[in-house]
Design goal:
The protein is of the alpha/beta class and 759 residues long. It folds into 3 domains: 4-88 and 97-145, Response regulator (Rossmann fold, 3-Layer(aba) Sandwich); 150-251, PAS domain (Beta-Lactamase, 2-Layer Sandwich), CATH 3.30.450; 375-381 and 409-616 and 632-748, 3'5'-cyclic nucleotide phosphodiesterase, catalytic domain (Catalytic domain of cyclic nucleotide phosphodiesterase 4b2b), CATH 1.10.1300.10. Helices cover 52% and strands 9% of the residues. The strands form 2 sheets. It has a 5-stranded parallel beta sheet, sandwiched between helices. Helix 21 (511-523) packs parallel to helix 28. The chain is globular. The protein starts with a strand and ends in a 12-residue tail after the last helix. The model is unreliable at 254-318 and 382-404 (pLDDT under 50). Hydrolyzes the second messenger cAMP, which is a key regulator of many important physiological processes. May be involved in specific signaling in the thyroid gland. This is Phosphodiesterase. AMP binds at residues 484-488, 525, 655, 707. Residues 145-188 form the PAS domain.
Length: 759
Amino acid sequence: HALQVLLIFAKEDNQSDGFWWACDRAGYRCNIARTPESALECFLDKHQEIIVIDHRNSRYFDAEDICRTIRATKPSEHTVILAVVPRTSTDQEETSVLPLLNAGFNRQFMENSSITACYNELVQIEHGEVRSQFKLRACNAVFTALDHCQEAIEITSEDHVIQYVNPAFERMMGYHKGELIGKELTELPKSDKNCADLLDTINTFIKKGKEWQGVYYARRKSGDSIQQHVKITPVIGQGGKIRHFVSLKRLHCTNENNKQVSYFLHVIIFIAFKSHSFKCKNRRKDSTDKSITSQSSDAPSLQTRRYSSMARIHSMTIEAPITKVINIINAAQENSPITVAEALDRVLEILRTTELYSPQLGTKDEDPHTSDLVGGLMTDGLRRLSGNEYVFSKNMNLSHSHLSVPNTINDVPPCIAQLLDNEESWDFNIFELEAVTNKRPLVYLGLKVFARFGVSEFLNCSEAMLRAWLQVIEANYHSSNSYHNSTHAADVLHATAFFLGKERVKGSLDHLDEVAALIAATIHDVDHPGRTNSFLCNAGSELAVLYNDTAVLESHHTALAFQLTAKDSKCNIFKNIDRNHYRTLRQAIIDMVLATEMTKHFEHVNKFVNSINKPMASEETSSHSEGSDCECTANIKNFPDNQTLIKRMMIKCADVANPCRPLELCIEWAGRISEEYFAQTDEEKRQGLPVVMPVFDRNTCSIPKSQISFIDYFITDMFDAWDAFAHLPVLMQHLANNYKHWKTLDELKCKGLRLPSEN
């Protein structure tokens, strides 16, 4: 097919015209993009083989940033990117090409608008790098074929070091690929059932360049011996020497034992869950999530090796990945023993009917507290009752108190300023700030935190405008709510700022991400009515109808926040930033607030574990260099999808960090959320609505049991994963202490927040 070229030039000039006409002369198909956004969109649509980026003037866009963004996408693996650089004068020293290479460019082109010069450059690229990339693509196709081959295949170097094994080999031998690659064959256990001189006979054949085939006993990882029919072929390479050995193996007998059957099932389920985590974003149909979906965060699973990306290069199809998995299993059933076929029937039933990311609660003796929490937080309503319209009062014109709002941060009253001196500590007492500010902690903490992170500088707005915006947002939190009020918002803002200060988080995110996270934390529960999504859906509220019973409150919080911001130019903190920056910032804020909605809790946590924790653990175990941590965070920064996962996880943890606060703060928050749930249950009974969380009846509820269930079901795994990334020993110690507190109360049959003797 005709070669495709993408020109990225902000303005049309002689240079862009030179490349355009050069493409025409060479018979290449050419597209031109003027902005970074249109460039990425065009590339993801067309997958051009050559990209030419104007690197002569940074006034219009950052060429290196565009290059990095494109390189972060899967299709760019085989694309050649050329930087057009300004011509240097004869007395100027030529600059190094290394920064360009580090940004992802393959080569540079000195500014020359001659059509012939441009033509020569493009033709040289085609005959050099592009043709090499075509060969690499062919290699990927070969590896894909090998990975789907039914025979077990092992490729070793001339020194018998294992360099590749296919999935069929893994299934047959019981090893993971990561346990084998890089090891010498002599390091693996041998079966004692072979003739004493068999290995010598095989080596004599293959060292002479001859093929050997015969029956051989191999020892599986489990220790049992299996009889194989083996064919070993030497591969002659450079210099006429043997460079590799390819071994094809199949079971010599037809009956598989029970262990092999169960292992086969394990592999099928592995594939199913791996495929379920497939990502299809921005039409990148060939981008897959390469990890096993798992809720576990234990060390062995974090180090599980992932299949080579080369084996999945041709996954470009509109067929849903889960459908592919079901088709694979159906095909496998045809030639399987009856026991395997029946077991696969059960696998298919699970795959077709179950939400794969959510753990299933047992039906017998299940904990009612856990069941109610799941029902109340992870569903959007039980059933619709007609005629029950729940309308909550807006809090638009709250008259707070006589306390004056400061004109600048320097005008903050001394008692508040003294408290805020400690705001960078995790043990900061938000309730003391609530008391001393007359329930207006968000404005004061917001001013301090936003100043520390340079938010007004990034937004190009005055501190006065930022203050006015914080006032408007805080005024729209309901102070009548026992939990979802501006103190909770300030608490989440504090936690978010604390997380942003952790080295690995800081190194993984950009300034825009930090600003988006702080704003998202500030607005994430604005105008919360003190009732759950399930309640609003059951009551047929205006908001539930407006948002189709889906992420009702979270959608409302973001929409209202942007409406309030745009309503008055005095508090429109976004009005001075570039439109593209605003769009990116807005999208990041919306994404983070929506991530606080609990129905996708396990999906967010699992994606974080699979895409961040596991690859990072794998890198850390395989790398002993001092700079490995920097490399990890640098790699994350190159992948916007990973940055999104980090931001989601960060705000999710900040939103429910109460069990990780010092005990006294944890107890206060537990009392407040319980009171809000009690009030909801009271209202559900009054209105004749379904009672979403029956255990939260103020007359019978055990608060310790509810806290234990919440920590067990939602908190522990999530904070284990976040701690593995951000390193949060203080939080994890508080969590352990608080859990012990609730357990002690529960064992003593105490239903309150403290022991009676402590009240």
